Amino acid sequence: MGMGAFGDPRPKRSLNAEKQGLFSNASGWKSLITFTVLALAWISGFASRLFAVIRFESIIHEFDPWFNYRSTAYMVQHGFYNFLNWFDERAWYPLGRIVGGTVYPGLMITSGSIHYILHSLNIPVNIRDICVFLAPVFSGLTSISTYFLTKEIWSPGAGLFAACFIAIVPGYISRSVAGSYDNEGIAIFALQITYFLWVRSVKTGSIFWASLTALSYFYMVSAWGGYVFIINLIPLHVFALLLMGRYSSRLFTSYTTFYILGLIMSMQIPFVGFQPIRTSEHMAASGVFALMMAISFLKYVQTILTKAEMRYFYMIAVLGAGGVVFLAVVLLTYAGVIAPWSGRFYSLWDTGYAKIHIPIIASVSEHQPTTWFSFFFDLHILVTTFPVGLWYCIKNINDERVFIVLYAVSAVYFAGVMVRLMLTLTPVVCVLSGIAFSHLLGLYLKEEETMSTPDSDSETDDGSNEKSSRNLYDKAGKLRRMRHEQIKESDGLGSNVRGLIVMAMLMMLMMFAVHCTWVTGNAYSSPSIVLASYGQDGTRQILDDFREAYYWLSQNTHNDARVMSWWDYGYQIAGMANRTTLVDNNTWNNSHIALVGKAMSSNESEAYKIMTSLDVDYVLVIFGGVIGYSGDDINKFLWMVRIAEGEHPKDIRESDYFTERGEFRVDSEGTPTLLNCLMYKLSYYRFGELRMDYRSTPGFDRTRNVVIGNKNFDLTYLEEAYTTEHWLVRIYRVKKPDEFNRPRIPLSDRKIKRSKIFISKKTNKRKKGSIKNKPTVVKGKKPTKTA
Amino acid sequence: MTGLRVALVALVFLCGSSLAAPDVISPSLRVKQADRLVDLASQLVKINTQMVFENTGAEAARYVILVVDEAHTASMAYINAILVEPNKGGVKPMKLVETTVKGQERSGHRFYRVDLKTPLSTGKTVTITLETIHSHLLEPFPKEISQKEKQLIKYTGSHYIFSPYLVVKQKTTVNLSARNVESYTKLKPVSQADQSLNYGPYENIPAFSHDAMVIHCENNTPFLTVRNLQRAIEVSHWGNIAIEETVDLEHTGAILKGSFSRFEFQRESGSGLSSVKSFKTILPASATDAYYRDDIGNISTSNMRVMSDAVELNLRPRFPLFGGWKTHYVIGYNVPSYEYLYNSGDNYILKIRFIDHIFDDMIVDDAVTRIILPEGCTNIKLKAPYAINRLPDTLHFTYLDTKGRPVVVLHKTNLIEHHIQDVEISYTFPRLLMLQEPLLLIIALFLLFVLVIIYVRLDFSINKDEASENRLRIAGLVDKVLSHQLKRMTAYDAYDDQLNKLRQIKDLNSFNSSLKSVTSDLKAETQAIADHQTKLKSDGPELAEKVSELQKLDKALKEVLAQQQALYVEKLVPGKINRTAFLEVDGPLVKKKSDIREKISVVVKSLQH
Fold first, then answer.
1. By the 8 A CB rule, do B343 and B264 touch?
2. CB A720 to CB B261 under 8 A?
3. Pick the CATH number of A544-739 from 1.10.3210.10, 3.30.160.20, 3.40.50.2000, 3.40.50.12610
4. What is the CATH number that goes with domain B29-218?
5. What does residue A200 show for φ and ψ, rounded to 5 degrees?
6. Chain A partners of B472 at a C-beta cutoff of 8 Å?
7. Measured between beta carbons, which residues in chain B are less than 8 angstroms from residue A473?
8. Fewer CB within 10 A of the end CB, N or C, for chain A?
9. A528 to chain B: which residues are within 8 Å by CB?
10. Beta carbon pairs, A and B, within 8 Å
């Protein structure tokens, strides 16, 4: 139904509908095919994202989505303004976190308003289900907006191709499966619709479209930090157009309108605040705005001055303006008004930067550079066809194709730097591949069509759309019957070759669809909080240890209990167990994380000092040694050490955890520092006694395939509070100072040694002094001899 | 007749007096023989006392008084009295009326009056069984145990049956769940046999005697308590009843002391004996679509077995429940409504269990059952099998509701399995209201379509776009021109065909007759195009130009055809021309014709764009 609002230009349709039936009505067919293809793209995109729901259940996945879900639930419960003012005292204990001001609220507002609308219609859908299914639903919107973008840039046929590609391409599915309730799920839609509106507004030069662009940019800003990409790409586009001498009043209108409105609106998001005028990332947009103004001024002056004067004036003005802007930016940066680029931003230019300076960024796997494998894995055939589309766009360049070219080039770069930014590359790859496929198929199907029977209006969508894109009013198919319009043998290829090419391309598309389904099903549809293992007979065993532990925490610890764990699990603990955490996935405070890292990598008594100073009640560690789960805390342990070392270089040294040969090992050759640190002890407490089966030695770690080095130890300062069925999550209670080392003796059993204590024999009656150990002298009596 | 009336009056009077005044414990009644069975084998204490009452006085006794002592009243979840009539074959439940007794108003004991159907005359006996079930009466002792230890409980009662009458002879059997008895009070004669203790017989114990009996023994049966049960029953007249229970469960046995060791729990058989790993919930036989979940999703460890008379759910909480540990879950299922909903006309009766089975020997501390009736129900009445607190009705809104569904909210505390009984809710529901929801949908969709139609058909733009309207009009005209052109060309094709025929068959008559219609067609179409051309002239001069060009070409084509016709009719058919000469004349004409056609198609194509 969302599509009904758009659709084809109406007049044509109604005009034709009057005279002719549906079957002879080409534009009717065209819109029918468009609707059908888009609807199918929506449905298949939605359906292929449901693997996780069908295999497991309707559940929020992974880590960040749990925070988003928790905030959404909070907003739904307490209202929007309370959400904006929300100070979360359950995170970052004892600091807390101002959630309302440090979050992109677009996601929560989107699902919150869907929830509100449904509930006002008395449709009692749980907010969790809305959150779970939000990303798949928005993927349909994404494919529609991709259709419009591609249609603006190339043709409706290419648009349909692009829409189908984006609906199922794994690079986008990876971030938008059901349950992956994250900003990216709606942000890609916002990105595409913003680009579409921008291209449209550049094309038309209308304030209306430019304002819509700004509005959708506002939505994007509210939804994802990736909005910086838009606010740099659009100025880049404008700048490139200016360089190419393609200045026009349309460009001027659209950019100035967009920039001003977008700037003001983006500053309404509390988390963004004054950043758009104060940070370097946003300066390109203002610079281009100033340039635009200068050029339009020059154009105006041009109408007054003569040509010779103009050239002279032009040189000075351009140089002067450029210099002034540059100097201003430099000076403002120097003076501290404009903040320099942030660390994450630097790591985009220098892939080694994060590893050296910000281990916390480097420790996240999705911040690693992308491998070739993952390009192919995520994009499959599109990775080879999108340069073709790019080439077509460059060959037939116009204002809006400049945009897509820039988009493609920059996105390819960023995707190469960070795995995570594959996401921004994927839409443009789909657009360009759509163009490539549509163009190629158009080339090869079109001739076929003329050779086939005359009433071949009911072609495949690609063919007829391609044809109609060229020949929009070509609906009088009967005209072709005229004898004098006999087909002339086409030059070029024969039908066999054409058929082969078309077949090959369809084959590739089919392989693409198969690949997408396979990748989605196998790689991107695991909720990661529920694990499944398959037995030899194909039976599935579900390992639900994470939820077991979190639910235990939520039910059986007191409400204010503070749980220390590595930051990966912070959001999950807050979301599922509803307990206070010390650090979480927000990672805004590196020193706090380092403190937790230090506690984990110190020995028990040192750790105890840190834990008591942080009021820790429980410690939670993930241990995969029993079932062979590789993502456990021991495998992450070196990052904890590194981060701790960054802040406490005197106490923690990474080299202490490596053997002399530079290996990190937990068996008997491991370093004593490692074998006695808190993380080791908590992971392996009583594991040394555990035998997997009768043949294996006790204490065999299945993740690292070694027998652990330190087996028989006891915990002094902590006690095991709960361990899940497969030992995956282990929770320890931190003892209070009076509990450890001093076994409690019941009052009746307490013996107080009094031997050395001097007890005065003075009483109220006898106040005479006495000398200690004085021999008693008995007077006037002979000692009697007892027999 | 009058006698009956007098008797009635007397009865009413009697009843009235009995309500107003406290009852009297008749000194002439005594318990001849009493057997008591105290069952401590589960977390509940089930006391079953069979008493043979004998009337030793002169006056017939109309009722007997039963009593529950102070220590047992607070925990009492269920009480029942049964008249045992072995010779008449069987047992008969009796009505218990709570009452007060003269001289005992201050005491904390609870007295019940059982009215005898036939007054007990002198020397006669009557056998009555009093059954009471108590929750939370067994006290874990010690209160805290470690994971390795067994759970011990302490029961404090009385050696003697607490009776308002003299008990001549009495015996007590205590059933335990395990052989291991730490200690028990030894009021002789007493003996221990396997899993039971036998006290008595004791003789001639006066009324209201109490002698503390303490039993301290092992009991590892699950000590589970439902702290709070929220049961929602949603009735749909479309054939389904959805039931959902939200359960707050707690292990109320001895609290776990110290740490929990997964290693010991998995490897050592004697570890965590009193913990609860799973339990069985029995659902109605027709239950389908069962789900078992909590706040964070499905609890993946449960099994469902469909049996002939019930559906058995083997529920395993996410974690084993040790003493003091809690959990919380939701269980839900559907049952078909024909098993529970009865109607006669517009009057309906819903017979459904107030609570349902959760686990064996369950204790429910607090239960709230919300029965959601269809929208539009009126005249709701409740009939309960036991005293249930009915809270004010509320409204519930769900799919397609407008004014909300009435909800009957029922509340009761301290429930056990014996409370699994049907409540009856009667209400009136006009059947026509069934159509409300489909109609609502139909109307909503209809309105949507109407809106779309209005939006598509009407122009809502603020400014009138002259240019585009113009363009549209022109496009329309061009369209018409093109269609006429198409027809004209078909007419020409026919013309051509006829000429060809003529050339071959040389039949002038048929040619002339068929030509007539063709020429008339041509004339009409040309005229129509000319009309449109004049209209076009004002709006789109360029296109009009093209159309006029079309007309010119058309004229030329017509001329060529006329020439050809002349050639055929005048020269060829009469045979005035030889073949080579004919071809010489005809060839250029054909060529010219195709040239013109080519040109026409070019113009047509340009018009199409």
1. no
2. yes
3. 3.40.50.12610
4. 2.60.40.1730
5. -60, -40
6. 11, 15
7. 608-609
8. C
9. none
10. 114
